[in-house]
Specification:
Layout: E1 4-7, H1 11-24, H2 36-42, E2 54-63, E3 66-76, H3 77-83, E4 87-95, H4 99-115, E5 120-123, E6 135-138, H5 155-162, E7 165-176, H6 185-198, E8 201-203, H7 208-227, H8 238-248, E9 257-261, E10 267-275, H9 278-284, H10 292-299, E11 303-310, H11 319-334, E12 338-340, E13 344-345, H12 349-354, E14 360-372
Parallel strand pairs: 4-5
Antiparallel strand pairs: 1-2, 2-3, 3-4, 5-14, 6-14, 7-12, 7-13, 7-14, 8-9, 9-10, 10-11
């Protein structure tokens, strides 16, 4: 059967685009379905402020009337300005096990990019670094998190046959919280050392209202600064920061967010542990209503993935370790024994060193690919 590529032109097309993975991964114990409404909003120019600095074209692959693949071509003007490139991103790539389908999808994305003067293509990536990115190349038998991409093991071979090559990898770790009811002496000593050296204090966040209204804007300002030098990141506009505050912070628990302030009360570091919602999202099947919300609320008692940042001029003074140790102290009080990182660039040795204070394993690897399309 021949493959036809159809651009997404309507809301019904967009819904087919969003729902395709639900059929492709049906029955997988490792795939975590994203919330359908969130996906529709992310890919809609009317809802996602990222479109103020980007263009996107979505494509569906069909055989007869059956959808067999999808891809998003994203032209991030913000990224191209920052890095001085003419690069097209591709993301939301999913397809059946077929070289023909994969080639047709990537050809469609590349052609759209060439029409706009792009000379290279990288992916999988989103509009910003806060969208899921990186194709899974190791860890196919590990449960995904809500913040990451899961893909079938045949995906890397499909894109490599197309001519895509490695640009950079992300690695992920699973750490074991130290057993027992108290922290080991070594961790306590690290905390005391970091507090003396950095002259910062950790502040408690009273409730979600304070988190979103008071700390939310400061957290995303510092996140912008902390991630500025990392691969593929783009500066966020105020509208984007407000968008992510509304999207992510309602899922956070104030006691699982550590904020470090200097002697003048200014925010100099943060660490966020997100609830472990993977099993809850699997049970919700992409929908919060009518019953999915109950699975999510129950899951808020556990956490796994973490996000952290420290102001540039204060890096290397132990602030990150101060927050890590306090996070583990909180984990102990909640009876949590495992913590999972977000994807970390393989070159980000500093953040990976923080995982060395606990038993850990590097259990996933994901890849950004690149190719010339001019």
């Amino acid at each position: 059967m021949s493959t036809r590529i159809i651009p997404v032109e309507s809301r019904s097309d967009l819904k087919r685009f969003v729902l395709f993975p639900h059929r492709l991964y049906h029955g997988s114990p490792f795939w975590v379905p994203p919330l359908i409404r969130d996906e529709m909003d992310t890919l809609s120019p009317a809802s996602n402020p990222a479109y103020e600095q980007a263009e996107a074209r979505l494509f569906l692959a069909r055989r007869n009337e059956t959808v067999v693949g999808r891809v998003a071509a994203i032209l991030s003007h913000a990224a191209n300005r920052k890095y001085g490139t003419r690069n097209l991103r591709f993301g939301w790539f999913d397809c059946v096990h077929s070289n023909e389908v994969a080639r047709a999808l990537l050809d469609a994305a590349a052609a759209w990019g060439r029409e706009r003067g792009m000379v290279t293509m990288t992916g999988p990536q989103g509009f910003t670094d806060l969208d899921p990115e990186g194709m899974l190349v190791e860890g196919f038998d590990e449960l995904a998190t809500i913040a990451t991409i899961y893909n079938h093991p045949y995906y890397p071979a499909l894109v490599e046959r197309y001519g895509l090559q490695k640009e950079i990898d992300y690695v992920e770790f699973q750490g074991q919280v130290p057993p027992g009811t108290v922290l080991p002496d070594r961790l306590v000593a690290l905390t005391e050392w970091a507090a003396r050296r950095s002259r910062v204090t950790l502040r408690a966040i009273a409730n979600r209202r304070e988190l979103q209204r008071t700390y939310g804007p400061m957290l995303f300002d510092l996140l912008d600064e902390s991630f500025e030098e990392l691969y593929g990141t783009v500066p966020l506009t105020k509208k984007q920061k407000d968008y992510y505050i509304r999207k992510y912070l309602p899922l956070a628990r104030p006691d699982l967010i550590k904020v470090a302030c200097d002697e003048d009360g200014r925010l100099v570091g943060f660490m966020i542990a997100l609830p472990s919602l993977s099993h809850a999202f699997q049970k919700a099947h992409g929908r919060l209503l009518p019953f999915g919300v109950f699975h999510v609320l129950r899951a808020l008692r556990k956490f796994d993935s973490m996000l952290a940042g420290v102001r540039k001029q204060l890096r290397g003074k132990g602030i990150d370790r101060l927050m890590v140790v306090d996070m583990f102290r909180t984990a102990l009080s909640h009876g949590v024994r495992l913590a999972e990182s977000n994807p970390e660039l393989e070159t980000n040795v500093k953040i990976q060193n923080e995982w060395k204070i606990v038993p850990r394993r590097q259990h996933k690897r994901r890849r950004i690919y690149t190719t010339v399309i001019a």
